[in-house]
Specification:
206 residues, alpha+beta, two-stranded antiparallel ribbon, globular
Length: 206
């Protein structure tokens, strides 16, 4: 169910909208902001981050986050550009998580990413290295290993052929890698734009 809210959001209200969406997704409330409202709030958050030159340390991303909402993109033939799709809330029966771990205190801008999808007893994990540019809030990543589990037991664990080995990954330019450009990070949720142009909104795993 979606709340009947006006789609026009004041620049200072986007945190409230995102907090409402996070609370609703955790089943603390009965209604969700509409997809239009949420996309608008994310765009306001991104605009605010650019205006204020917001900067976040890598340590603020560490932990496990559940994907709550995402938008796709679509090409516009007339103009040759890309626009955001309407977006969707991730169905509750599919659990999609991303987690970030630091490599060490010495390498404070490097670490590991784990992207996990759970559907019933089946779990699919993709892991690999990350590097973070704090001034741009840019996190580049690559997946080089796949792990499949059934009822908690690993049944498949292999390197991903298309993945880059860790040392080679760190020697590559970020322009050649997939990345997330984070524009909002706090203790409850994070939001970013992917290299393809889509937006994603995660809530901290409780």
């Amino acid at each position: 169910m979606t709340a009947s809210l006006t789609p026009i959001i004041d620049a200072f209200d986007f945190v409230a909208v995102l907090s409402e969406a996070a609370a609703a997704y955790r089943r603390q409330r009965d209604t969700y902001p509409s997809t239009e409202i949420l996309v608008n709030a994310l765009l306001q958050a991104e605009k605010s981050a650019k205006q204020q030159h917001s900067s976040y340390p890598f340590e603020s991303l560490l932990g496990k986050w559940q994907l709550c909402f995402a938008t796709g993109t679509k090409k516009v033939r007339e103009h040759g550009g890309i626009v955001l799709g309407k977006g969707f809330y991730v169905p509750k029966f599919i659990k999609m998580h991303v987690s970030f771990n630091a490599a060490s205190e010495e390498d404070s801008d490097r670490g590991e990413i784990c992207n996990q999808v759970e559907l019933g007893p089946i779990s699919l994990k993709l892991t690999g290295p990350v590097q973070y540019i704090g001034k741009k809030n840019l996190l580049a990543f690559d997946f080089n290993q796949m792990i499949i589990s059934l009822f908690g037991s690993v049944i498949y664990k292999r390197p991903i052929r298309s993945g880059i080995q860790t040392e080679d990954f760190y020697n590559q330019s970020i322009a050649q890698q997939p990345f997330f450009a984070f524009f909002l990070i706090n203790k409850d949720f994070i939001a970013a734009r992917g290299r393809g142009g889509g937006l994603a909104f995660w809530i901290r795993e409780t």
